[in-house]
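Quick question, first post here. What does this chain look like in 3D?
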Amino acid sequence: MTHHTSKYRFLLYEPMHEAGTRLLQQHGEVVTAPAPDEATILPLAKDVDAIVIRANGKVTRTIMEAAPRLKVIGRHGVGLETIDVPAATEKGIRVVYTPEANSESVAEHFVGLALMLSKRMLEADRALRAGQWNVRYEYIGRELFGKTLGVVGFGRIGRTTARICHCGFGMPVLYYDVVAPPSDVEAETKAKRVSLEELLRTADYVSLNLPLTAETRHMIGHERIRMMKPTAYLLNLGRGPLWDEKAVLEALERQWIAGAGTDVFEEEPTAKDNPLFRHRRFVCTPHMAAHTDEAMRRMSLVAEDVVAVLEGREPRFPANRPKR
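> Answer (accepted):
Ran it through. Tokens below.
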């Protein structure tokens, strides 16, 4: 297939798994930006046919206007808030993404953080390293088994979280979503759709799995956290600004909730003196829930849809449908 060698030009905002990179290289030239900021991207975008963006940087209208040959933007991952999708649609540029690639990885990460909080693993680890063997009598954990899971946002990741928790830990599942899923999705986990208020008042573990929009920003603040039980745990596996970090800190300090965990922060990278870090009932990771070898490979295969668009075929996972 030598005729493909320099057919297309692809711009990657960051390096990605070799499975996807290799596929693009078979269809043209791959350029990886040294940094994902707009000033670095603009000169590189001028003669590209496709852009692939990961978690950092943005694909703005300005960048699209600087790239007259641009036909497709691939999102290595799920959230589309870093791409100006309306501008792309208006300009006839397809946007594709990988909505199924990281569901298992992120859902497993929720379970990991929930177990760390419930079994007080992080506290115990720190104490043991400091020579305090007797914390084994002091740090009494809690089982996940039979506790109620509340999923805020019942998309692919939320549903996978529900499946693991229901099938693995016998957890009843409540969920809140503005969109009703197909009935078979509820059947698998016996999930019950409720209002956000009822979910917060009832659930023992609350998982935030919403995309970030104007409506969902700071959706979980002081008032809604106060609805939760003092024995409940709040975990954010969606986007940092879904909750108000100051409200979460206050809730931990005043023991309004039993603990909080997150993979995402309001500002990323978060400051090393983030006050949440001082709280012992808080566990966190640096936006890496989807960073498993399996998910990184699946996300890199957004390359398949990028190539499909360039070759005039319909992509598997379109995020928009331009008229032209």
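Confidence is low (pLDDT under 50) at residues 1-5.
The two ends are 29 Å apart (CA to CA).
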